[in-house]
Amino acid sequence: MIEKPAPILTKRQKEILDFITRFVDEQGYSPSLVEIGGNFGLSSVATVHKHVENLQEKGFVTRKWNANRSLNLTEKALSVRAIRVPLAGRVAAGRPIEAVEQHDFIAVPEDMVGKGRTFVLEVRGDSMIDEQIRDGDFVIVEDRSRVREGELVVALIDGEEATLKKFYREGARIRLQPANPEVKPIVVEASRVRVQGAVIGVLRKYR
User: Is this structure's pTM higher than 0.90?
Assistant: First the structure.
């Protein structure tokens, strides 16, 4: 069972969190919403407030209601170190879809990065819903071809169709098992399947 998905920070939210952290380190107190907006060229305090509110909902800051300079960094914010990991494309958690190569990056908490080459894929479909992986989530994948029975993998079928499923060997065939009773497993000759990596984590963008 995959652990509960970690919240993903948007690029702007990560920038604002980093600014708050630096400001507190240098000044000894938190910046006001106006100061945050000024640093990023945001004239609307309401826009800044929304970003801070999202950080609060994701557990990175706390803030007293209607008080200036009341931002406090949580232990979660103080301990997080993000590493830029390639966003390699999309993968189907349903019927296989064509693998998509992209050239973008996503910030992943350091403790969620694999030992080997790691990349991120955006999930399409709900076939892995019982593993707490939903349409629109991002799976963190460690690039390796050797996987254990029952491990959650990204598999390439016939060299072009990527799918997210649990991996099982059945003689000369491979069964790619969904985690949704409404979706049928994919059973194909082993020669048609190439494992691209094992899923080691999940990120979810709540906003």
Answer: no
